């Protein structure tokens, strides 16, 4: 597996989250399969994805999406392939090619 | 010690934990499917989750209705467009979709008679020009959703609160304006919160645009986002009650989730609405006569309802609640108490998933206050405790203890016969064109008794506290010269008139506008008066 390889991911937004992402409900994107951390690299996890989304896709008000700990803000539900991300290892879940990640905001926004 | 002794000493929680460990990764109900949803440590598969939410909803409904339904009630479902109320409509539909053999069975009458859906369109408050408004309107989408279930739809715009049609009597065509009891130059140094008094003014028929302008003017006079949100929520619930009554419904059903109720409990307590808290958070509330309020989703978390909407493919309306953040002036105002509470509760809920449920259970022990509905607050239509204003004045420190400014002297005791002796006195004394320059304080004393109707003395503690965030500069004062930049809607004006015992809008207006008693006297004896001109004419006409 080469470092330049990328994974095709489908991102879905609802409950007001789409407003932060250019008003798009679904984004098909490719994320790098590996992220470099210092000297070594590791397979992309949701933690990496969230940071990557914040820098590449997010259009406005990052404080409404990403929390101080690098996770999503509390009140945002994340589903990985239809299952609660808490069951999939939360931030440490390693993304697979073709994964569908859903972000639902349960907050009123602001 | 025998081996069996250990078994009974296990607590229920430990047993459950052990149970869960055995079935880790599998649904806690069917124990055969892989779990996909986790709600408060319990894992469910999709079908079991839908089933459990439905059962929870049915339990809540059963607890709210009598054992034997004799007269089926009409329901009004309040639909905002969000996931909670969207789930509510769908759950009711599932609940009422009985198999034909049950429907035809006369022994099992329908539990509910008719189901109506109502929606309040708040798009006019968004930051948009006139053309953009039509696109933002949520009314069409709400109607579409309601009609897809064959439910009668009732829609109203939030600015219709300024329509006399939406007052309790359907024709209270008057608005209330507020005045402070102190002139502007004394507000800052008076050492006490000024009294708010009200005037009623007739409201001619206004266009929709005028109503939006009026509502925006009121919101602009609120200096904090909390104040704006609170006032809007009062208007929203007033409209919901009106919609319910007009559709001949007996029950208003709200989609408040456990998370929302927990946020309300903390948020409302923080803004001083603790007294009416039980009415605004219990599963059943009987405060408004002939209009029960039901919250059947009070035991379900927001997360559950969001997942339910997703699983059932239920379309919600995006941007259904007005975002007022654009109306605030400074960065510091962007947060409101309800926003902060929301963050607080959801933040806690992330690490401790029982937070919302615990807060709700604790507050469920509160009992509703024993106050008559007649003595309601004109603004929020909630219960009022006696003597809140005196109590508030007693416990509030408005000036620092070592303040150099003198507290304002009561009217009529000023040194020079005017309201104050400082340089600004000209502003005050130049108030009314008919008032002489030295008559200011005495005039004020006089009008204090007759002209204005009381307002702040009728408010509940929550509203009294909330209205402290109104910009006092936007109100007139009793001397009457200043521009009043906002008006309170007919429903509030009606509340004031109601508390004062005026039966009709004419009576209330006559009472409020009797600034010059000679005018009302003149009006009464108008037909007996002989006009100067006509006198002349008559004389001229006589040979």
TrEMBL record, chain A:
It is found in: Cytoplasm. It comes from the Eukaryota. The modification 1-thioglycine is found at residue 110. GO terms for cellular component: cytosol. The keyword Cytoplasm applies. Pathway: tRNA modification; 5-methoxycarbonylmethyl-2-thiouridine-tRNA biosynthesis. Its main location: cytoplasm. There is a cross-link at residue 110 (Glycyl lysine isopeptide (Gly-Lys) (interchain with K-? in acceptor proteins)). Keywords: Cytoplasm, Isopeptide bond, tRNA processing, Ubl conjugation pathway. C-terminal thiocarboxylation occurs in 2 steps, it is first acyl-adenylated (-COAMP) via the hesA/moeB/thiF part of UBA4, then thiocarboxylated (-COSH) via the rhodanese domain of UBA4. One of its GO terms (biological process) is tRNA thio-modification. Signal peptide: none annotated. Belongs to the URM1 family. Acts as a sulfur carrier required for 2-thiolation of mcm(5)S(2)U at tRNA wobble positions of cytosolic tRNA(Lys), tRNA(Glu) and tRNA(Gln). Serves as sulfur donor in tRNA 2-thiolation reaction by being thiocarboxylated (-COSH) at its C-terminus by the MOCS3 homolog UBA4. The sulfur is then transferred to tRNA to form 2-thiolation of mcm(5)S(2)U. Prior mcm(5) tRNA modification by the elongator complex is required for 2-thiolation. Also acts as a ubiquitin-like protein (UBL) that is covalently conjugated via an isopeptide bond to lysine residues of target proteins such as AHP1. This is Ubiquitin-related modifier 1. It comes from Entomortierella parvispora. The lineage of its organism: Eukaryota, Fungi, Fungi incertae sedis, Mucoromycota, Mortierellomycotina. The gene is URM1.
UniProtKB/TrEMBL annotation, chain B:
GO terms for cellular component: cytosol. It is found in: Cytoplasm. Pathway: tRNA modification; 5-methoxycarbonylmethyl-2-thiouridine-tRNA biosynthesis. Keywords: Cytoplasm, tRNA processing. It comes from the Eukaryota. GO terms for molecular function: nucleotidyltransferase activity; sulfurtransferase activity; tRNA binding. Pfam families: CTU2. Gene3D superfamilies: HUPs. One of its GO terms (biological process) is protein urmylation. InterPro entries: CTU2, Rossmann-like_a/b/a_fold. Plays a central role in 2-thiolation of mcm(5)S(2)U at tRNA wobble positions of tRNA(Lys), tRNA(Glu) and tRNA(Gln). May act by forming a heterodimer with NCS6 that ligates sulfur from thiocarboxylated URM1 onto the uridine of tRNAs at wobble position. Prior mcm(5) tRNA modification by the elongator complex is required for 2-thiolation. May also be involved in protein urmylation. PANTHER family: CYTOPLASMIC TRNA 2-THIOLATION PROTEIN 2 (PTHR20882). Belongs to the CTU2/NCS2 family. HAMAP family: CTU2 (MF_03054). This is Cytoplasmic tRNA 2-thiolation protein 2. It comes from Entomortierella parvispora.
